[in-house]
Amino acid sequence: MSENNTHATNFHNDPRVQQAKALLREALTEHSSKLDNVAPANLSLETSYKSTLESCGQLRGGNLFFPYLGSGLGNGPFVELGDGSVKLDFITGIGVHFFGHSSPILLDSQIDAALADTIMQGNLQQNLDTEILLNKIMKLAKAQGAELEHCFLTSSGSMANDNAFKLAFQKHSPADRVIAFENCFCGRTIAMASVTDKELYRTGIPTVLNVDYIPYFDPENPEESTARSIAALKRLIQRYPNRHALMKFELLQGEGGGYKVAQADYFRELMTICRENNVAVLADEIQTFGRFSKPFAFQYYNLDDLVDLVNIGKLSQVCATLFTSNYKPKPGLISQTFTSSASQINAAITIMDTFANGDLFGPNGKIETLTNYFRTKLQDIADRVPGSLTGPFGLGDMIAFTPLDGSLDKAKALMMQLYDDGLLCFIAGGNPYRLRMLPPIPAIDESHIDLAANLIETAIKKIQSV
To answer: 10 Å Cβ neighbour count for 4?
Structure first.
């Protein structure tokens, strides 16, 4: 052992620790490899599993959306539940489990985290890992010339948005309003629920932010919708001069929009107007980060010169707010007892390394190759089964389609039929409603997409026959 290292470095390099890691990798591979297809529940576990689900629902004050409690083991896109059934996970916790289940890529990082001196890291006390992660995130973010200089880690996407809002409000004080797109989603804290354009999510909750909405891009009427959005933005700025601190941009509308896509020029025109009127540009990339042919959606659209604030989360494990030096806060504005766990920080370091050095991005990268293949399979279903689906919609690893007639009843029925048959997906949008998927691209190949497509086609035919 080197005397030039810390005791912690010597500990992690201890041959016994390295041997333990190797043994754990071997054991994980042996057991997870048995989960290689969808499978029904084990009849001997059904009664106890049902009881556990009921207990969980009672304890948490409401039933789980799906009757889903994982066993703690998976194999890439396959996940075992507590009843022994195996599902093909193409929603990945709404985008969190990008590397799949029981990922061998992340195993070593999780062992290192388990050996760390504390479980949680916070604003007052953080480990060396934090600085490593911050550097890796910023290197990715600045790859095309963005002027982002700082990164503040946080515990959730809502908190990342909250921190970005605070930075903008402080910078542009006494501005007291924000601008967002119609049907946007922003999070579930009280403040962020005020921004989310869905009344159901804030029933009985007081409004704590003044929010103005403009219509989102319509791909069927690009010029008209662009003009409409520009006019709406200018009208708001004129109506409330110097009152808007920021505009929140969803570069692909997720939950509310059903994976609606806009054009780069559309965003550039709106962002330019914001910049000219001293309104901060916030790119909300909680869901889009890591899912296109470039790590950030703002890079995909070549908007690097216009972003002031950027949020990431979900697949990054650690959530974060990135910002330019113009938005550096005064002391005390943003701080958290918990910024993230050692587990999340270590996993995020591995993920950033994979993004920087792997084969995911680029026109011929794994994201583009596999998602284009998936879209082709969905289009084949639409061609082969009349009235089955419309689409696909979205970009990169954000994939959606309108099932059947697009009604909420049909979309829910198909979603639950797919769950029963072994495929996990989720609803998005409204009028029409869509089913959305966020496949774990690093953990899949074409065979998994073929399986998903077969399950979708079979389930659609079941629903059609009812």
So the answer is: 7
Tell me what pLDDT residue 463 has: 96
Spatial distance between the Cα atoms of 300 and 124, rounded to a whole number of angstroms: 36
Residue at which a domain ends, from 310, 339, 357: 357
User: pLDDT tens digit string along 252-289?
Assistant: 988 777 899 999 999 999 999 999 999 999 999 999 99
Q: Which residue has the tokens 């920087």?
A: 356
Helices (H), 33-76: 43-60
Please state, in angstroms and as integers, the Cα–Cα distance from residue 451 to each residue in 120, 347, 371, 423, following that order: 39, 29, 14, 9
Q: Which of 171, 360, 154 is nearest to 279 (CA)?
A: 171
Query: Which residue has 């570069």 as its token pair?
Result: 251
- Residue 271 makes CB contacts below 8 A (sequence gap 6+) with 247, 249, 281, 303, 306, 307
Tokens 């106890």, residue?
48
Six-digit token pair at 56? 């969980």
Q: How far apart are CA 86 and CA 81, in angstroms?
A: 6
Sequence-distant (6+) residues with CB within 8 A of 328 are: 149, 150
- Other CB atoms within a 10 A radius of the CB of residue 249 amount to 27
Sign of the alpha-carbon dihedral angle for 447, 448, 449, 451: positive
Please state, in angstroms and rounded to a whole number, the distance separating the CA atoms of residues 171 and 182.
25
Same domain membership, residue 309 and residue 232: yes
Of 329, 357, 385, which closes a domain?
357
Q: Does residue 436 share a domain with residue 312?
A: no
Strands 280-285 and 260-261: unpaired
Judge if pTM exceeds 0.85.
yes
pLDDT for 2 = 61
Span 336-366, pLDDT tens digits:
898 899 999 999 999 999 999 999 999 999 9
| The pair of three-digit structure tokens given for residue 414, joined into one six-digit string | 């198909």
Residue 437 has a CB neighbour count (10 Å cut-off) of 27
Residue type, position 34, single letter: K
Peptide bond into 219 cis (omega under 30): no
Query: Is residue 32 within 8 Å of 24, Cβ to Cβ?
Result: no
